[in-house]
Amino acid sequence: MLESVLNQILQAEATEQLQADAMVTKVREDGRVRSRGLLLAFGVNMQGYRELLGFWVGDSESGASWSEFFLNFKQRGLRDVELIVSDQHNGLVKAIRTHYQGATWQRCRTHFMRNIIDATPKALKEELHARLRSIFTAPDLQTARFLFSKTIETYQDKLPKAMKTLENGFDDATAVLMLPEKYRKRLRTTNAMERLIEEVRRRERVIRIFPNRESLTRLLGALLIEFDEKWASGRRYLDMTEFALWQKERPNDSKKVTRIM
What is the pTM of this model? Predict the structure, then answer.
C-alpha cells in the first residue's frame, strides 16, 4: 500500500528540486538489535510544492543502499536530474555519481563550513567563518572564486588542513550559484531535510527499537505520507516562475525538463 502511494506521488508531476539524506534507527532482527538506515528524499514540483519522493530501509547508509534507493527512483521515472543537494556521505555521493552522472551535486554549505571550522584553532574560528560566509553568499561564481583565492592565500600557511578542506570542496559547495539568486538560500543546504528528519526522529524516539522492518516501514512511512499530504495542501515552498524562465534562456542542449535533487 505504501509503495503504491509513493509511486503515485513520484509519477504525479516532474520534480525540479530534491534533497536526500538518511537517519539511523534500530530494528530487532534474528533475535538481535541492529542499526538500519532510513533513506529519505523529497522534491519540489514546478508548481513550487514539496512532495515526498521516497523512503527506503537499508542495511546501512552505504553506497549499496543508496544505489538501490536511486535505482528505484529511475525505475519509477525520475530521470534527467540537474542538481542534487545533500551532505557528503561517501555512500550517497558515490551513488549519485553512478546513477546521475550528468547531475551537478550541491554539497550542503552548513556542513561543509563546519568541517572547515573544526580544523581551525579557536582563536581564528570567528575570523575564518566570516571569510567563508562571504565566499558562499557571493553574488556570482566569479566573485566567489576571487574571495576563495584570497582566503587560500591568506591562511594557507596558518591553516593548511582547513585550507585543504576548502580547496577540495569549493566547487561542490558553490554549485548552487548557477541558479537564479532567489533559489540559492534554500538550495545551498540540507536544512529543510534535517527539519523533516528531526520530526521523524521525535516520533521514532518513543519506540526506540522497532520489532521488525515492516513495523518501521508502516509507522514512519505513514508519518512521511502525512507530511506529503500537508505539503500538497499547504503553502508553496518556492515560486518557480523565475526558475522556468531561467531554464528557457539556457543553451538549446540544456533545454529539457530537469530536476533538482
Answer: 0.85
